[in-house]
Amino acid sequence: MRFLALLAWLFFAFSFFTAIRSAWLARLVGGLSRQHRLHHWLGLFAAALLVLHTLREIYVDSEVAFYFEDPFLLLGWLSLLLLLLALGASFANKVHHRWWIAIHWSFLLAFVLGFLHGLIFLHPGRIHAALFYSIAALGSASILGILYYRSRGRRWIVREVQQVGGGLFEVVLRTERQGSTGLKAGSLVYVQLGHSFTQNWHPFSVASCRTSPELHLIVKNAGVDTSHLSDLEPGHSVLLQGPFAEFEITERPQVWVAAGVGIAPFLGMARCFDYRKAGPVTLVYYTERIEEPIKMELDRLASEHPEFRWFHSEGKSADLGILDQTVSADRKAQFLVCGSSAFMRKIRKHLIDLGLPTSDIETEEFTPW
Ligand SMILES: Cc1cc2nc3c(=O)[nH]c(=O)nc-3n(C[C@H](O)[C@H](O)[C@H](O)COP(=O)(O)OP(=O)(O)OC[C@H]3O[C@@H](n4cnc5c(N)ncnc54)[C@H](O)[C@@H]3O)c2cc1C
Q1: Which residues line ligand 1 (CB under 6 A)?
Q2: Nearest CA to ligand 1 atom 37
Q3: What is the DSSP track for 182-226?
Q4: CB atoms < 10 A from the CB of 21, how many?
Q5: Is the domain of 146 the same as that of 163?
Q6: pLDDT digits 0-9 by tens, 176-194
Q7: Which of 366, 367, 369 to mutate to test the pocket of ligand 1 (most atoms within 8 A of CB)?
Q8: Is 249 within a domain?
Q9: Domain range spanning residue 102?
Q10: pTM of the model
Protein backbone atom coordinates (compact mmCIF):
# COMPACT_ATOMS: atom_id res chain seq x y z
CA MET A 1 0.00 0.00 0.00
CA ARG A 2 1.52 3.27 -1.06
CA PHE A 3 2.07 6.44 0.99
CA LEU A 4 -0.79 8.40 -0.64
CA ALA A 5 -3.24 5.59 -0.02
CA LEU A 6 -2.07 5.26 3.59
CA LEU A 7 -2.56 8.97 4.18
CA ALA A 8 -6.03 8.83 2.58
CA TRP A 9 -6.81 5.86 4.83
CA LEU A 10 -5.79 7.94 7.87
CA PHE A 11 -7.99 10.90 6.86
CA PHE A 12 -10.87 8.53 6.14
CA ALA A 13 -10.60 6.96 9.64
CA PHE A 14 -10.38 10.40 11.27
CA SER A 15 -13.48 11.53 9.38
CA PHE A 16 -15.35 8.76 11.24
CA PHE A 17 -13.73 9.79 14.50
CA THR A 18 -14.94 13.37 14.09
CA ALA A 19 -18.48 12.12 13.40
CA ILE A 20 -18.78 10.81 16.97
CA ARG A 21 -21.44 12.95 18.59
CA SER A 22 -20.03 13.26 22.05
CA ALA A 23 -19.88 16.28 24.34
CA TRP A 24 -16.19 15.75 25.24
CA LEU A 25 -15.10 15.63 21.61
CA ALA A 26 -17.12 18.74 20.71
CA ARG A 27 -15.54 20.57 23.67
CA LEU A 28 -12.06 19.41 22.61
CA VAL A 29 -12.34 20.86 19.10
CA GLY A 30 -14.14 24.04 20.18
CA GLY A 31 -17.79 23.28 19.47
CA LEU A 32 -19.97 20.98 17.42
CA SER A 33 -20.03 23.27 14.35
CA ARG A 34 -16.24 23.28 14.28
CA GLN A 35 -16.21 19.48 14.67
CA HIS A 36 -18.69 19.34 11.79
CA ARG A 37 -16.42 21.41 9.55
CA LEU A 38 -13.36 19.33 10.52
CA HIS A 39 -15.30 16.17 9.61
CA HIS A 40 -16.09 17.65 6.17
CA TRP A 41 -12.49 18.62 5.47
CA LEU A 42 -11.16 15.21 6.50
CA GLY A 43 -13.66 13.48 4.18
CA LEU A 44 -12.69 15.80 1.31
CA PHE A 45 -8.95 15.27 1.88
CA ALA A 46 -9.44 11.48 2.03
CA ALA A 47 -11.26 11.54 -1.32
CA ALA A 48 -8.70 13.88 -2.94
CA LEU A 49 -5.79 11.68 -1.81
CA LEU A 50 -7.55 8.52 -3.02
CA VAL A 51 -8.06 10.11 -6.44
CA LEU A 52 -4.34 11.00 -6.54
CA HIS A 53 -3.44 7.46 -5.48
CA THR A 54 -5.61 6.03 -8.30
CA LEU A 55 -4.16 8.42 -10.88
CA ARG A 56 -0.66 7.44 -9.79
CA GLU A 57 -1.45 3.73 -10.17
CA ILE A 58 -2.89 4.37 -13.65
CA TYR A 59 0.23 6.33 -14.57
CA VAL A 60 2.56 3.58 -13.29
CA ASP A 61 0.77 0.72 -15.06
CA SER A 62 -2.61 1.37 -16.63
CA GLU A 63 -3.11 -2.28 -17.59
CA VAL A 64 -2.79 -3.42 -13.99
CA ALA A 65 -4.85 -0.47 -12.69
CA PHE A 66 -7.81 -1.51 -14.88
CA TYR A 67 -7.44 -5.27 -14.45
CA PHE A 68 -11.00 -5.75 -13.14
CA GLU A 69 -10.74 -9.53 -13.13
CA ASP A 70 -8.87 -9.13 -9.87
CA PRO A 71 -11.77 -8.81 -7.36
CA PHE A 72 -9.67 -6.96 -4.79
CA LEU A 73 -8.66 -4.33 -7.32
CA LEU A 74 -12.31 -3.98 -8.23
CA LEU A 75 -13.14 -3.46 -4.54
CA GLY A 76 -10.70 -0.52 -4.48
CA TRP A 77 -12.45 1.06 -7.46
CA LEU A 78 -15.87 0.47 -5.90
CA SER A 79 -14.71 2.00 -2.64
CA LEU A 80 -13.48 5.12 -4.45
CA LEU A 81 -16.65 5.45 -6.55
CA LEU A 82 -18.89 5.02 -3.51
CA LEU A 83 -16.90 7.60 -1.55
CA LEU A 84 -17.06 10.13 -4.40
CA LEU A 85 -20.79 9.56 -5.00
CA ALA A 86 -21.63 9.83 -1.29
CA LEU A 87 -19.50 12.98 -0.90
CA GLY A 88 -21.08 14.52 -4.01
CA ALA A 89 -24.60 13.79 -2.73
CA SER A 90 -23.76 15.13 0.76
CA PHE A 91 -22.19 18.36 -0.44
CA ALA A 92 -24.74 19.02 -3.19
CA ASN A 93 -26.92 20.28 -0.33
CA LYS A 94 -30.01 19.28 -2.26
CA VAL A 95 -30.97 16.09 -0.44
CA HIS A 96 -33.47 15.92 2.40
CA HIS A 97 -31.99 15.29 5.83
CA ARG A 98 -33.33 11.70 5.99
CA TRP A 99 -31.62 10.86 2.66
CA TRP A 100 -28.51 12.55 3.91
CA ILE A 101 -28.41 10.11 6.86
CA ALA A 102 -28.95 7.12 4.54
CA ILE A 103 -26.16 8.33 2.25
CA HIS A 104 -23.82 8.45 5.20
CA TRP A 105 -24.09 4.70 5.67
CA SER A 106 -22.45 4.21 2.27
CA PHE A 107 -19.27 5.77 3.71
CA LEU A 108 -19.15 2.79 6.06
CA LEU A 109 -19.39 0.40 3.07
CA ALA A 110 -16.67 2.39 1.25
CA PHE A 111 -14.46 2.01 4.35
CA VAL A 112 -14.97 -1.79 4.48
CA LEU A 113 -14.28 -2.16 0.73
CA GLY A 114 -11.19 0.05 1.11
CA PHE A 115 -9.98 -2.16 3.95
CA LEU A 116 -10.31 -5.36 1.87
CA HIS A 117 -8.52 -3.71 -1.06
CA GLY A 118 -5.72 -2.39 1.18
CA LEU A 119 -5.33 -5.77 2.87
CA ILE A 120 -4.37 -7.46 -0.38
CA PHE A 121 -2.25 -4.66 -1.79
CA LEU A 122 -0.49 -3.92 1.49
CA HIS A 123 3.18 -2.99 1.21
CA PRO A 124 5.29 -5.85 2.70
CA GLY A 125 7.09 -3.56 5.20
CA ARG A 126 6.24 -4.01 8.90
CA ILE A 127 5.75 -0.30 9.56
CA HIS A 128 3.29 -0.04 6.69
CA ALA A 129 1.31 -3.00 8.02
CA ALA A 130 1.32 -1.63 11.58
CA LEU A 131 0.07 1.75 10.38
CA PHE A 132 -2.57 0.17 8.13
CA TYR A 133 -4.00 -2.02 10.93
CA SER A 134 -3.83 0.78 13.55
CA ILE A 135 -5.75 3.13 11.27
CA ALA A 136 -8.28 0.38 10.50
CA ALA A 137 -8.72 -0.10 14.27
CA LEU A 138 -9.21 3.66 14.75
CA GLY A 139 -11.83 3.74 11.98
CA SER A 140 -13.67 0.67 13.34
CA ALA A 141 -13.61 1.97 16.92
CA SER A 142 -14.91 5.33 15.68
CA ILE A 143 -17.80 3.64 13.82
CA LEU A 144 -18.70 1.78 17.03
CA GLY A 145 -18.38 5.11 18.89
CA ILE A 146 -20.80 6.76 16.44
CA LEU A 147 -23.36 3.98 16.96
CA TYR A 148 -22.87 3.96 20.72
CA TYR A 149 -23.30 7.71 21.22
CA ARG A 150 -26.29 7.82 18.86
CA SER A 151 -28.07 5.13 20.84
CA ARG A 152 -27.78 6.92 24.18
CA GLY A 153 -29.95 9.64 25.67
CA ARG A 154 -31.19 10.98 28.99
CA ARG A 155 -34.87 11.10 29.75
CA TRP A 156 -36.47 14.52 30.17
CA ILE A 157 -40.13 15.20 30.83
CA VAL A 158 -42.28 17.72 28.99
CA ARG A 159 -43.67 20.31 31.39
CA GLU A 160 -45.47 22.39 28.81
CA VAL A 161 -45.52 23.48 25.19
CA GLN A 162 -46.52 27.09 24.50
CA GLN A 163 -47.25 28.54 21.09
CA VAL A 164 -45.05 31.63 20.78
CA GLY A 165 -46.79 32.66 17.56
CA GLY A 166 -47.08 31.59 13.89
CA GLY A 167 -45.19 28.33 13.61
CA LEU A 168 -42.99 28.82 16.69
CA PHE A 169 -43.30 26.85 19.93
CA GLU A 170 -41.53 27.03 23.26
CA VAL A 171 -41.02 23.53 24.67
CA VAL A 172 -40.29 23.43 28.40
CA LEU A 173 -38.60 20.28 29.75
CA ARG A 174 -37.48 19.15 33.19
CA THR A 175 -35.08 16.39 34.07
CA GLU A 176 -36.02 13.36 36.13
CA ARG A 177 -32.80 13.65 38.13
CA GLN A 178 -33.22 15.18 41.58
CA GLY A 179 -31.50 18.52 42.14
CA SER A 180 -30.29 18.95 38.53
CA THR A 181 -30.53 22.32 36.88
CA GLY A 182 -31.00 23.27 33.22
CA LEU A 183 -28.31 23.23 30.54
CA LYS A 184 -25.83 25.87 29.44
CA ALA A 185 -27.27 28.63 27.24
CA GLY A 186 -25.66 28.78 23.82
CA SER A 187 -25.12 25.03 23.67
CA LEU A 188 -26.94 22.48 21.53
CA VAL A 189 -28.93 19.39 22.39
CA TYR A 190 -30.23 16.53 20.25
CA VAL A 191 -33.76 15.42 21.04
CA GLN A 192 -35.68 12.27 20.15
CA LEU A 193 -39.29 13.27 20.65
CA GLY A 194 -40.54 9.84 21.74
CA HIS A 195 -43.92 8.20 21.38
CA SER A 196 -45.92 9.21 18.24
CA PHE A 197 -42.83 10.84 16.68
CA THR A 198 -40.09 9.35 14.46
CA GLN A 199 -36.85 7.93 15.93
CA ASN A 200 -34.85 10.86 14.46
CA TRP A 201 -32.56 12.94 16.66
CA HIS A 202 -33.26 16.65 16.17
CA PRO A 203 -30.69 19.35 16.99
CA PHE A 204 -32.07 22.33 18.92
CA SER A 205 -30.35 25.22 20.68
CA VAL A 206 -30.73 25.64 24.43
CA ALA A 207 -32.96 28.71 24.87
CA SER A 208 -32.67 29.00 28.65
CA CYS A 209 -30.01 29.64 31.26
CA ARG A 210 -28.26 26.85 33.17
CA THR A 211 -29.41 28.41 36.45
CA SER A 212 -33.02 27.98 35.39
CA PRO A 213 -34.50 24.73 36.76
CA GLU A 214 -35.95 23.88 33.36
CA LEU A 215 -34.72 23.56 29.83
CA HIS A 216 -36.42 25.71 27.17
CA LEU A 217 -36.28 25.07 23.44
CA ILE A 218 -37.69 27.36 20.76
CA VAL A 219 -38.88 25.08 17.98
CA LYS A 220 -40.13 26.01 14.53
CA ASN A 221 -42.72 23.92 12.74
CA ALA A 222 -40.43 22.72 9.94
CA GLY A 223 -41.46 19.19 9.00
CA VAL A 224 -42.57 15.69 9.92
CA ASP A 225 -41.91 15.79 13.69
CA THR A 226 -42.03 19.48 14.46
CA SER A 227 -45.43 19.87 12.74
CA HIS A 228 -47.29 18.16 15.60
CA LEU A 229 -45.58 19.45 18.73
CA SER A 230 -49.00 19.72 20.36
CA ASP A 231 -48.71 15.92 20.86
CA LEU A 232 -46.07 16.70 23.49
CA GLU A 233 -48.45 16.67 26.43
CA PRO A 234 -47.23 17.45 29.97
CA GLY A 235 -45.63 14.26 31.35
CA HIS A 236 -44.57 12.99 27.89
CA SER A 237 -40.95 11.78 27.99
CA VAL A 238 -38.28 12.62 25.41
CA LEU A 239 -34.64 11.53 25.10
CA LEU A 240 -31.92 14.13 25.07
CA GLN A 241 -28.22 14.07 24.12
CA GLY A 242 -25.80 16.82 25.07
CA PRO A 243 -25.29 19.61 25.85
CA PHE A 244 -22.72 20.28 23.14
CA ALA A 245 -20.68 23.44 23.53
CA GLU A 246 -21.29 26.09 20.86
CA PHE A 247 -21.57 29.78 21.80
CA GLU A 248 -20.09 31.23 25.00
CA ILE A 249 -21.01 34.42 26.82
CA THR A 250 -17.80 36.27 27.68
CA GLU A 251 -16.65 39.53 29.23
CA ARG A 252 -15.63 40.68 25.75
CA PRO A 253 -18.15 42.82 23.79
CA GLN A 254 -20.26 40.61 21.55
CA VAL A 255 -22.59 41.17 18.61
CA TRP A 256 -25.19 38.45 18.10
CA VAL A 257 -26.72 38.13 14.64
CA ALA A 258 -29.78 35.88 14.33
CA ALA A 259 -32.19 34.97 11.56
CA GLY A 260 -35.59 33.36 12.19
CA VAL A 261 -35.45 30.54 14.71
CA GLY A 262 -31.68 31.23 14.97
CA ILE A 263 -32.80 33.56 17.78
CA ALA A 264 -33.07 30.49 20.09
CA PRO A 265 -29.45 30.35 21.44
CA PHE A 266 -29.33 34.14 21.86
CA LEU A 267 -32.62 34.22 23.71
CA GLY A 268 -31.15 31.65 26.09
CA MET A 269 -27.95 33.66 26.52
CA ALA A 270 -29.90 36.92 27.02
CA ARG A 271 -32.01 35.21 29.66
CA CYS A 272 -28.76 34.66 31.62
CA PHE A 273 -28.45 38.43 32.11
CA ASP A 274 -30.99 37.99 34.91
CA TYR A 275 -28.38 35.87 36.73
CA ARG A 276 -24.93 37.06 35.64
CA LYS A 277 -23.08 40.04 34.22
CA ALA A 278 -21.54 39.96 30.73
CA GLY A 279 -19.67 42.34 28.44
CA PRO A 280 -21.77 44.71 26.32
CA VAL A 281 -23.95 42.76 23.89
CA THR A 282 -25.82 43.95 20.79
CA LEU A 283 -28.35 41.64 19.20
CA VAL A 284 -29.36 42.11 15.56
CA TYR A 285 -32.38 39.96 14.79
CA TYR A 286 -33.65 39.35 11.24
CA THR A 287 -37.06 37.78 10.96
CA GLU A 288 -39.96 37.76 8.56
CA ARG A 289 -42.36 38.75 11.33
CA ILE A 290 -41.42 39.29 14.96
CA GLU A 291 -43.48 37.35 17.49
CA GLU A 292 -44.89 39.54 20.27
CA PRO A 293 -43.77 37.38 23.26
CA ILE A 294 -40.16 37.38 21.98
CA LYS A 295 -40.24 41.14 21.38
CA MET A 296 -41.64 41.79 24.86
CA GLU A 297 -39.03 39.62 26.53
CA LEU A 298 -36.11 41.19 24.62
CA ASP A 299 -37.47 44.68 25.43
CA ARG A 300 -37.69 43.76 29.11
CA LEU A 301 -34.13 42.37 29.15
CA ALA A 302 -32.81 45.50 27.40
CA SER A 303 -34.60 47.82 29.83
CA GLU A 304 -33.36 45.92 32.91
CA HIS A 305 -29.79 45.32 31.70
CA PRO A 306 -28.08 48.40 30.26
CA GLU A 307 -25.24 46.29 28.80
CA PHE A 308 -27.77 44.68 26.41
CA ARG A 309 -29.41 46.35 23.41
CA TRP A 310 -31.16 44.90 20.43
CA PHE A 311 -32.41 45.82 16.96
CA HIS A 312 -34.57 43.92 14.60
CA SER A 313 -35.45 43.99 10.95
CA GLU A 314 -38.63 42.41 9.61
CA GLY A 315 -39.16 41.18 6.08
CA LYS A 316 -37.93 38.58 3.63
CA SER A 317 -34.50 40.12 2.94
CA ALA A 318 -32.07 41.14 5.67
CA ASP A 319 -31.40 44.91 5.99
CA LEU A 320 -27.62 44.87 6.41
CA GLY A 321 -27.56 48.61 7.21
CA ILE A 322 -28.36 47.81 10.87
CA LEU A 323 -25.42 45.43 11.01
CA ASP A 324 -23.10 47.98 9.39
CA GLN A 325 -23.94 50.54 12.08
CA THR A 326 -23.28 47.95 14.80
CA VAL A 327 -19.95 47.00 13.23
CA SER A 328 -18.78 50.61 12.98
CA ALA A 329 -19.78 51.17 16.63
CA ASP A 330 -17.76 48.19 17.81
CA ARG A 331 -15.12 46.67 15.53
CA LYS A 332 -13.43 44.94 18.47
CA ALA A 333 -16.46 42.80 19.28
CA GLN A 334 -16.78 39.07 18.75
CA PHE A 335 -19.54 38.24 16.23
CA LEU A 336 -21.78 35.21 16.85
CA VAL A 337 -24.10 34.32 13.99
CA CYS A 338 -26.94 31.80 13.88
CA GLY A 339 -29.42 30.95 11.12
CA SER A 340 -29.80 29.05 7.86
CA SER A 341 -26.73 28.17 5.77
CA ALA A 342 -27.61 30.81 3.16
CA PHE A 343 -27.98 33.48 5.86
CA MET A 344 -24.72 32.40 7.49
CA ARG A 345 -22.79 32.63 4.24
CA LYS A 346 -24.25 36.05 3.49
CA ILE A 347 -23.44 37.52 6.94
CA ARG A 348 -20.00 35.94 7.15
CA LYS A 349 -19.05 37.31 3.72
CA HIS A 350 -20.45 40.73 4.61
CA LEU A 351 -18.50 40.91 7.88
CA ILE A 352 -15.29 39.82 6.16
CA ASP A 353 -15.88 42.44 3.42
CA LEU A 354 -16.18 45.02 6.21
CA GLY A 355 -12.67 44.03 7.26
CA LEU A 356 -13.41 41.91 10.33
CA PRO A 357 -10.99 39.03 11.01
CA THR A 358 -12.49 35.55 10.50
CA SER A 359 -11.25 34.58 13.98
CA ASP A 360 -13.79 37.04 15.43
CA ILE A 361 -16.75 35.42 13.63
CA GLU A 362 -18.38 32.34 15.20
CA THR A 363 -21.22 30.54 13.45
CA GLU A 364 -23.77 27.89 14.36
CA GLU A 365 -25.22 26.58 11.17
CA PHE A 366 -28.63 25.00 10.86
CA THR A 367 -27.32 22.41 8.41
CA PRO A 368 -27.75 18.65 8.87
CA TRP A 369 -25.41 16.95 11.27
C1 LIG B 1 -27.06 23.03 14.83
C2 LIG B 1 -28.56 23.12 14.64
C3 LIG B 1 -29.34 23.80 15.57
C4 LIG B 1 -30.72 23.89 15.38
N5 LIG B 1 -31.47 24.56 16.30
C6 LIG B 1 -32.79 24.68 16.11
C7 LIG B 1 -33.61 25.38 17.07
O8 LIG B 1 -33.15 25.88 18.10
N9 LIG B 1 -34.93 25.47 16.81
C10 LIG B 1 -35.49 24.92 15.69
O11 LIG B 1 -36.71 25.03 15.51
N12 LIG B 1 -34.76 24.26 14.78
C13 LIG B 1 -33.43 24.11 14.96
N14 LIG B 1 -32.70 23.41 14.04
C15 LIG B 1 -33.37 22.78 12.89
C16 LIG B 1 -34.14 21.56 13.40
O17 LIG B 1 -33.24 20.60 13.89
C18 LIG B 1 -34.96 20.94 12.27
O19 LIG B 1 -35.88 21.91 11.82
C20 LIG B 1 -35.75 19.75 12.80
O21 LIG B 1 -34.86 18.72 13.11
C22 LIG B 1 -36.76 19.30 11.75
O23 LIG B 1 -37.33 18.06 12.15
P24 LIG B 1 -38.65 17.50 11.41
O25 LIG B 1 -38.79 16.03 11.60
O26 LIG B 1 -39.84 18.30 11.82
O27 LIG B 1 -38.33 17.86 9.91
P28 LIG B 1 -38.14 16.96 8.64
O29 LIG B 1 -39.46 16.68 8.02
O30 LIG B 1 -37.25 15.79 8.89
O31 LIG B 1 -37.35 18.02 7.74
C32 LIG B 1 -37.83 19.35 7.57
C33 LIG B 1 -36.65 20.23 7.23
O34 LIG B 1 -35.74 20.26 8.34
C35 LIG B 1 -34.44 19.79 7.93
N36 LIG B 1 -33.90 18.93 8.98
C37 LIG B 1 -34.44 17.81 9.47
N38 LIG B 1 -33.66 17.25 10.42
C39 LIG B 1 -32.58 18.06 10.51
C40 LIG B 1 -31.38 18.02 11.26
N41 LIG B 1 -31.11 17.02 12.10
N42 LIG B 1 -30.49 19.00 11.07
C43 LIG B 1 -30.75 20.01 10.22
N44 LIG B 1 -31.84 20.10 9.46
C45 LIG B 1 -32.73 19.14 9.59
C46 LIG B 1 -34.69 18.97 6.67
O47 LIG B 1 -33.55 18.91 5.79
C48 LIG B 1 -35.85 19.70 6.02
O49 LIG B 1 -35.42 20.81 5.27
C50 LIG B 1 -31.33 23.29 14.23
C51 LIG B 1 -30.53 22.58 13.32
C52 LIG B 1 -29.16 22.49 13.52
C53 LIG B 1 -28.34 21.70 12.56
Answers
A1: 96-98, 188, 200, 202-205, 218-220, 222-226, 261, 264, 364, 366-369
A2: 97
A3: ---TT-EEEEE--TTS-S--EEEEB-S-TTSSSEEEEEE--STTG
A4: 21
A5: no
A6: 776 667 788 989 999 999 9
A7: 366
A8: no
A9: 3-151
A10: 0.88
